[in-house]
Amino acid sequence: MRLDERLIEERTTDGRIDFHDHISRVRKEASNWLKGIEKNGIDHSKRLEDYLDQLIPDEFKEKLKPAEVFILLYAVYLHDIGYRDEQGEIESRDHPLRSKKYILEDHRKYLFDRFPSMNKGEAPLAAQAVAEVCCGHAHESVCPLRDIPNDFGDQNLCQKGLNLRRLAALLRLADEMDQAYIRLGHLRNSISLPAISPGIVRMHWKGDQSVGEALVDLVQEINETLVPVNDLLTEWGFPEKTVVLKPLVKKLPPPPQEPIADYKEFIPEHYIPSKCHDKKGDNNGLLHDYVRKWLNDPKRKLLAVLGDYGIGKTSFCYKFACDMTGSAYVPVVVELKTVMAEGWCEVIQREVRSRAGNSTQSPVLILDGFDELSLTFDKETVLKEIENLSKTTQEYKKVILTSRTQFFRSEEDEKETLVQKKFHERGPRSMTYPRFERTYVSLFDDEQIRQYLDLCLGEKKAEKFWNETVEKVFDVKDLARRPILIELIVNDLEAVQNIEGKVTAGKVYRIVTERWQEREREEQRLPPSIMLQHKEEKIPKNIMLFMEELAYWMLTKEKDRLHFNTLKDAINKYFDDETKEMLRLSLDNLDYQIRNCSFLSRPAQDYYAFAHRSFIEYFVARKISREIPKNRAQEIKITDQTALFVSELIDPSVYERIEPPQGVKIPKNMTYVPPGQFIMGERNILITSLKKGFFIDKYPITNAQFCAFLNERGNQREGGIEWINLEGSYKDERCRIRKDGNRFVVEPGFENHPVLYINWYGAKAYAEWAGKRLPAEEEWEKAARGVDGRVYPWGNEFDTEKCNINELKIGHTTPVKKYQEGRSPHGCLDMAGNVEEWTDSWYDGKKDGKVLRGGSWNRHRSFARCVLRDWYLPGIRDYYTGFRCARTL
Fold first, then answer.
1. 562-563 and 283-286: which strand pairing?
2. How far apart are CA 841 and CA 794, in angstroms?
3. HEC states along 15-54?
4. What is the pLDDT of residues 114-135, one digit of tens each?
5. Mean pLDDT over residues 853-867, rounded?
6. 748-759 burial code (b ≥16 CB/10 A, e <16)
7. Are 580 and 400 in contact (CB under 8 A)?
8. Is residue 252 scored above 80 in pLDDT?
9. Does residue 430 carry a pLDDT above 60?
10. Is the confidence at residue 589, as pLDDT, over 60?
11. Burial tier of 821 (Cβ tally within 10 Å: 0-12, 13-18, 19+)
12. How would DSSP label each residue in 442-458?
């Protein structure tokens, strides 16, 4: 009996949809849904339906409800639609999850339009059932079968509950039968389709020994994948399935194995042991000693080693692995960026097999670079990945995980991800969710910096550099606390010593990359034929453009490396003729450049990758720092380090050319902020844009200004409270406006101080009285930091001479025109400190709090950062709440 025969004359409970006819439509349309997907396309789905006919004995076909058969066959033709990602590219990783997503988001496309929905805007239950089964064909580490419903209710399909768990197991079983055809396509002519009998599936093959050997490993993987499938289906009485080869493969003496890469190869030549600290900043000594102590404690299983970029986490992983030789454990280092392409289970199992083999010693998994699974923090994705990690590594006694600290948007996100901090609105995590201990890699201290310099330069030269540069130029010492930067500084020592002004990370990266560019020209490393064809000074420029495009693709596609052909295809698809020609010159000579480039490597044949992720961020910043002032940048998410690089790379002259539209006059004591792109945000950093330009006050509203308003309008009540609290006081500061008879007056000497104790209603009322309005928070942020993503209105480094915050111990507000050197790129003063300013924006979707920006005289410097969002209920009047106004053109 064919499976679809169970559908003949079977319909939905309301009689509207014929199951058999509908599946016929699905088969026909599936050719379009799967078009262009070569290995897992329509032919794959057709084979799966044939496998199911053979795999499921007739008695079990009879046990399945018609609605269950309907869902199963529907899933056969939809389970691989996710092989195309959102950009239309073929991507196997996470394709079952995408298949589920596509079905739920566009159920009409997949012929669910005639099935009823329970709620408006929600996918029909039939679509939800098919989506669950499609997702269930993923590996057990991604989608455990027992997490899938076994009593799914859809009264339109069937009066009784549907066992989606069983259907997913059957789909996964059939899918595994086709793995030889999918994975070993080059051997297809040597492999027959599986011969299926009740308990044994025979995979026939012919040819030389290499064909059989390739199949042996595959069959082993298939049988391992089928373990949870068999466990579940045998509970139904279903015969257990085992795949065997026919004929058996004769075992030959194993060939000499290629030597496994020695971890020593990955340890920097001048390695300095790192120190570590706890979350409070207390010193925990050498990281190596701390982790060794953790390793020797059988009660401790999971450890997260967190640290800033370029701080030596990867170097520690390989050094610690080397030092474990001869211990009771076998170290297995896995660079997690490889998981992006292959999946948790495959990567980890392969590395464990290659390192541990049949050893009786316990493997220690050292998983490096959790942050490199995704270049931006998306909570849903991150929580899913950490659960996948947990399921994949449950059998291992010891697991070390490294990550950038900044990858997590906040300490709360870090806790929620790594230690399962529970938030009542989300409910508890599953029992399999991991709980990592955390330790933090410390920046180099003076002693470590000197040790490194001694190793690199020798004691005499190191002493001279320390005394003349490191000690005298404090910013050099600050940069040298990161191993990645001290290495760059030492490699280009002379150039770094000659940097004008403050030495910053951006200037160091610029020196390193531009010095390489200069060396290419000076040493004529290009082939003679190229030198004759093109002006030699043009080639390095094109190489730098190539680096920018390569980095940009990696960031936006979340890839750790790109294939040479991918870049050539991209050039033809996305760039104009002039850019194509420039990039072709780079591509033609890339290999020649690679050998002498310290920041780009070719880790595999025809693939290109950066030596450190910070180079991706730097080259992306180079690109978008040119595009943002011209409003040509793609509006994408970027990292915090990319934003810092952009702030250093954007030409300051962009602010000198700002003029309002012709014929528009700038109002007194206001400044013009143009429309266009800028960098906004902290936890979710975006390139965004304002559609319209606007005017904004140069200064916060003063006591004198607000007093004039009160004398005309009075101190009215709104939201159940008066606009200003005339009795408000805190420490040495108080409201400087008081009532004197029928008039409001300002305490002498405080006329030009910003007004305090104002609620949002009072700020809004004043703005309307003055013919203005309160700024939206995105307007306030652009006025404060310009287009370049700087940290403070004046730049990236905090300066107590440029604002009034609590560290200065002034103890009260200051005149609004005092800190002229603290002005923003658009000419606004006091956007950091003095008073925190009301905006017109709600803090979140709850719409119960209004956003305040800018910090105040009695708050920490962190509140003075341009990106810091605070909020209050609109009626709150506090000792640091003030405002400034904006005006639409």
1. unpaired
2. 24
3. CCCEHHHHHHHHHHHHHHHCCCCCCCCHHHHHHHHHHHHH
4. 999 888 889 999 999 999 999 9
5. 93
6. eebebbbbbbbb
7. no
8. no
9. no
10. no
11. exposed
12. PPP-HHHHHHHHHHHH-
Q: How far apart are CA 143 and CA 146, in angstroms?
A: 9
How many other C-beta atoms can be found within 10 angstroms of the C-beta atom of residue 822? 22
CA 639, CA 871: separation in Å to the nearest integer? 25
The secondary element (H helix, E strand) that includes residue 333 is strand 329-335
Beta strands (DSSP E) in 681-756 are: 686-690, 694-697, 717-718, 721-722, 729-730, 733-734, 737-740, 743-746
Give the strand pairing for 362-368 and 329-335: parallel
778 vs 853: CA distance, rounded Å: 10
- According to the 3-state scheme, what is the secondary structure of 228-293? HHHHHHHCCCCCCCEEEEECCCCCCCCCCCCCCCCHHHHCCCCCCCCEEECCCCCEEEEHHHHHHH
Residue 532 reports pLDDT greater than 50:
no
Residue in 68, 65, 30, 22 with CA at minimum distance from that of residue 46: 30
> What pLDDT does 513 receive?
76
Give the pair of three-digit tokens for residue 280: 């409070």
Contact between 194 and 203 (Cβ < 8 Å): yes
Give the single-character DSSP code of 605: T
At which residue do the structure tokens 């962190």 appear? 862
Q: Quick one: CA dihedral 587, 589, 590, 591, positive or negative?
A: positive
Report residue 600's pLDDT band, with 50, 70 and 90 as the boundaries. Answer: low
Strands across the sheet with 195-196, in order? 195-196, 200-204, 242-246
Phi and psi of 792, rounded to 5°? -120, 165
State the Cα–Cα distance between residues 15 and 383, nearest whole angstrom: 42
Dihedral-angle region of residue 312 (phi above 0 means left; psi in -120 to 50 means alpha; beta otherwise):
left
* Statement: the pTM of the whole predicted model exceeds 0.85: no
Cα–Cα separations (whole angstroms), residue 889 to 31, 670, 764: 55, 12, 18
Mean pLDDT of the chain: 84
The rounded distance, in Å, linking the Cα atoms of 324 and 362 is: 12
Cα–Cα distance measured from residue 711 to residue 275, given in angstroms and rounded to the nearest whole number: 62
Residue with the bigger pLDDT between 476 and 364: it is 364
Give residue 513's identity as a one-letter amino acid code: T
Where on the phi/psi map is residue 111: left (φ > 0), alpha (ψ -120 to 50), or beta?
Answer: left
3-state secondary structure 397-411: CEEEEEEEHHHCCCH
**How long, in residues, is the chain?**
889
Neighbours of 150 (CB within 10 A): 15
How many angstroms separate the CA atoms of 227 and 241, rounded? 9
b/e map 9-18, b = 16+ CB within 10 Å:
ebbbeeeebb
User: What kind and span of H or E run contains 523?
Assistant: helix 505-523
Residues paired with residue 256 on neighbouring β-strands, in sequence order: none
